[in-house]
Amino acid sequence: MLELTKGDTPLVFPKFENEDKMTESEICCKCSGCCRYVSVDITKPRSKDQIDLYVWYLLHKNVQIYIDNDKGWNLLFITPCTKLQGDGKCGIYPTRPKLCKDYSASSCSRTGKDHTHLFMTPDALLAYLEEEKKKKQTKSKTKVVKKTKKTK
Ligand code: SF4
Ligand code: SF4
Asked: Which residues line ligand 1 (CB under 6 A)?
């Protein structure tokens, strides 16, 4: 079983041999990565109750949290779309949602890491928040020291 204690393991999308010779649609049918999850914006946890809620989310199977490159927090459900067919094609292609139409293989999650942290377990989230708290405390101590020096 996958054991993670740190929050910086990337979401994994497959790469294929000779993919430079494949068309965008061939890559998508083989990958189908973006048809296999749902992500919803959430806010950065700021209170004990909110942290508790996020821990509860992460206690559920196939639920993860990630921080994107714009520092936005997202709740991730690893669950395939019911319209995804066995051959990797969309079963409702002409009428698929706009969100699916707008998603392009040239700018999708597969081409680059679009998040900075991924939390798969409550422990990973709590370890990250603890680390952030320590960093903040060190920063504010440094500021106080600098201010004290200035006033002398
Ligand atoms: S858009 Fe990107 S993530 Fe989605 S199926 Fe195509 S290659 Fe995979
Ligand atoms: S509707 Fe089609 S393109 Fe959109 S997520 Fe489902 S299978 Fe993928």
From this structure: 13, 27-28, 31-34, 103, 105, 108-110
